[in-house]
Amino acid sequence: MLDRAVIDALFPVDLPEPDHWEQRYPPREVPDGAQITRFGPSPTGYVHIGNIYVAMIDQNVAHRTGGAYLVRVEDTDQARVVDGAVELLQRAFDFFGIRADEDDTNGGYGPYHQSQRETIYLTYARQLLREGKAYLCFATADELADIRKRQEAAKLPTGYYGTWAVWRDADPADVQAKLDEGAPYVVRFRSPDTLKPRAEFTDAIRGPLSAEDNRNDAVILKSSANPLRLPTYHFAHAVDDHLMRVNLVIRGDEWISSVPLHLQLFDALGFTPPTYAHIAPLMKQISGGKRKLSKRKDPEAGVEFYISAGYPTEAVLYYLRGLANGRLAELPLPEALEAPIRLEDCGVAGPLVDLVKLEDISADHIATLSGEQILTALRQWAATYDLDLLPVLEDDSARALAALAVEREGVENPRKDLRKWSDFRTACGFFFPQLFTLVTADDERLSGLKLTPEVIRAFASDFAAKYQELDDPQEWFNQIRALAGDHGFAPNAKEFKKNPETYPNGSIREASQIVRVALTGSTRSPDLFAVTRALGTDEVLRRIHSLTA
Ligand code: GLU
């Protein structure tokens, strides 16, 4: 073991002792059973939908137990830190309304950026060195690569342990010689000399678990050659979660295998370990099975996908809650958003993210909103994602409301063609003269009707001449029926089937389709009478006239 003087000389002279931090960050005064949770994003410039999923669970569990939810930016891997990444995270959390109770803007247990907690980590690294629970390791990258190669060749577990760990019990004189040379070093945790037969712990989601105990001497403080002496994830986790008085660590299940090491670290530091809850990752169905939703392969893995497409926040949150706790998917949205998320109800197999299901949920949700509510959300979305649509909505909000009312207001089964705000142009864009491209008789969009442009022109000009804005839908339609009769269309499909040769242009179906395509640009649309009411007669006639040109 190194002399205390040698160890202390490696650290700033005024580095506080552990007691200082213990007093600076006292245990929290919270009710019994209150859970203090945290989310620890790495600021890599990408926000995964799984981040929102976990943060949502963190916040819910903390709030319903009278605890607190904090966000700690895990930026110890400085090479991966991207400018603006924290803002991006903030934007995503804001969008989903998942605000931290504590972060750098507010909270007594900060700083909440790991890169600003260097002094704290140094205190505890020095402490472990002084107690012989950590040691300096001068192994170079080449030496470590060589160890790894030999372990792989011998089919042994890779790592720095046992006889491979040459600096674990190094002669203090050799250490001193390296220090005198100015050789860079890392600080490694000295895994306990006597290991437990198995490391055992209880996961709040998975119940009792056990694993082979850790015998790897993990790096806890990265290279002394770095300008900032930052810790590895493992060490920062133990120090931060202890000092921030976090008692429930909810995190991805890729960390389960690190729990034995983490328990050893908490023990060596004299800290009480938190309860762990390891969340299964969000999955995607692929042919022949499922795999983790992938940042590289799946656009829907990124939160930007949901925000830019304009899925309503509530719909996405409701969907995510249902993935976390299946029973919440059975409840109506407003109740599900209020109901607690229970860790014990989280599955151990990763739930599948199914966009078709999300779209259904979203369409159902939008169908419950008023025109005003939709317009407000739509405007907010368009202000970032559809700058051409925004002024149209601003200038013509009466028309937008009229369009949104068609087959939605006062009907039993409202239309569900809005699944996200970016559907608005397709579903309702035709109501706006600014967004509509007039249809001419030889337009592609009419080609499916198999009518000559002459027939269409003649029908349209007669329509324009005789058109009446009528209040009764049946009467309104009768005028089209009469007009269709005048132009050789069968009055109904049955009649057409009986005598197809009498009606070379088809039936009332084709005649109505001429009107539908002229007014909406599409062969499928909401009820035509309702459409004409929302468009207004002038606009109806302008569109019909275009067929005659
Ligand atoms: N920064 C870690 C990550 O991005 C957080 C893991 C944890 O929550 O402990 O995976």
From TrEMBL:
Keyword match Cell inner membrane: no
Residue stretches making up the Aminoacyl-tRNA synthetase class I anticodon-binding domain: 512-545
Keywords: Aminoacyl-tRNA synthetase, ATP-binding, Ligase, Nucleotide-binding, Protein biosynthesis
CC annotations in GO: cytosol
InterPro entries hit by this protein: aa-tRNA-synth_I_cd-bd (IPR045462), aa-tRNA-synth_I_codon-bd_sub2 (IPR020751), aa-tRNA-synth_I_CS (IPR001412), aa_tRNA-synth_I_cd-bd_sf (IPR008925), Glu/Gln-tRNA-synth (IPR000924), Glu/Gln-tRNA-synth_Ib_cat-dom (IPR020058), GluQ/Sye (IPR049940), Rossmann-like_a/b/a_fold (IPR014729)
GO function term, MF aspect, one: tRNA binding
PANTHER family registered for this protein in UniProt: GLUTAMATE--TRNA LIGASE, GLUTAMATE--TRNA LIGASE, MITOCHONDRIAL-RELATED
Annotated protein name in UniProt: Glutamyl-tRNA synthetase
Biological source species: Allokutzneria albata (Kibdelosporangium albatum)
